[in-house]
Amino acid sequence: MREKLRILVAEMVRGGIPLELARREFERVYLEEVLAAHEGNHSAAARELGIHRNTLAKKLEAPQSRLRRVSLAS
């Protein structure tokens, strides 16, 4: 797992992706995966994440990053 992450990070660095953009994208994808694992149940996902369900909802409401839009278009 760590090696896969290292490869992805190296690719992002070579592509000039700023740390803040990479961090936001990682967090969003992570939250989406936890939510999917709980079949869309925000309360259960938030409990697993150790955050309030309103915090989870707000983080997911944030506009998708430019990185996300570009990578989905590729």
Question: Layout of SSEs?
Answer:
Blueprint: H1 2-14, H2 19-37, H3 42-49, H4 53-61, H5 66-73
Attribute tags:
74 residues; Arc Repressor Mutant, subunit A; globular; single chain; 77% helix; mainly alpha
General description of the model:
This protein is mainly alpha-helical and 74 residues long. The protein is built from five helices and no strands. It has helices at 2-14, 19-37, 42-49, 53-61, 66-73. Helix 2 (19-37) packs across helix 3 (42-49) and helix 3 (42-49) crosses helix 4. Residues 23-61 form the DNA binding HTH domain. It comes from Geothrix limicola. This is DNA binding HTH domain-containing protein.
One letter per element, helices H and strands E, the order comes to HHHHH
Low-confidence regions: none
Known CATH architecture: Orthogonal Bundle
Radius of gyration: 14 Å
> Roughly how much helix do the residues carry, as a percent range?
over 70%
Number of helical elements: 5
Q: What is the CATH level 1 assignment?
A: Mainly Alpha
Beta-strand content: under 5%
Structurally, the number of domains stands at 1
- The computed structural class is mainly alpha
- Gross morphology is globular
Could you describe the largest sheet, including whether it forms a barrel?
none
Fold-level CATH name = Arc Repressor Mutant, subunit A
Strand tally is: 0
Mean pLDDT value:
89
Distance between the termini: 24 Å
Domain DNA binding HTH: 23-61
Protein name: DNA binding HTH domain-containing protein
Pfam families: HTH_8 (PF02954)
InterPro entries: Homeodomain-like_sf, HTH_Fis
